[in-house]
Amino acid sequence: MLSKPAKRDLKHNRTIKGKGYKREDGLWDIEVFLIDSKTYSFKNMHRGYISSGEPLHDMAVRLTLNDDSKIIDIEALINASPYNICPQAVKNCQKLKGEFLVAGFNRKVIKILGGEKGCRHITDLLAHAGTIAYQTLWKEKTESEEKKISIEEAQSIEKKFANSCYALKKDGEVYNQYKEILIKKVEKA
User: Fold this and answer.
1) Cα(37)–Cα(14) distance, rounded to whole angstroms?
2) Are 186 and 154 in contact (CB under 8 A)?
3) Can you say whether the dihedral through the CA atoms of 97, 144, 18, 153 is positive or negative?
């Protein structure tokens, strides 16, 4: 728990929620939602007036994946934004169809949707979708110790997670434990 803060007034709320689903057709849906609101009302040049608690941003992304983490379909929606033009920013999301949620995915998203080609908040949601997808598909991919993986998949896993956080620092205890698991899975392939 964080320490007790100084006396303060809340001005902004951001909620990001993510969910991962196994579909009955065998595919996976990864959904991420973002809502921003202010604790005060204010004028807005495109929407006229935004009331306290009313979403300034209300956005969602759904990725449909196969078992190999390939994007089969993508849906992105901007229900509320500060500018009237913002909902048009999702059109380039379709360019992600066929891509894989593997190491380097966030760089690919920035290349395709970064800057004037998309919406910063949608690219942020896609970054969340990548980690939610990993957490959702993880059990399927690791449930059986007998499940085989390709050398390419093992390399992608290593590239994505090596030095990605304190616990997974290269050649640290946890990193080496997972490295041994991956080596055994590849050797069985």
Assistant:
1) 7
2) yes
3) negative
For residue 2, tell me if it sits in a domain: no
State pLDDT tens for residues 121-142. 999 999 999 999 989 997 766 5
Place of tokens 């065998």: 26
Q: How many CB atoms lie within 10 A of CB 161?
A: 19
Q: Tokens in use for 125? A: 């949601």
- Considering the domain architecture, whether residues 108 and 169 belong to the same structural domain is answered as no
Residues 111, 71, 161: CA angle, nearest 5 degrees: 70
Enter the tokens of residue 90: 């999702």
Per the domain annotation, does 3 fall within a domain? no
The closest alpha carbon to 168, from 103, 81, 98, belongs to 103
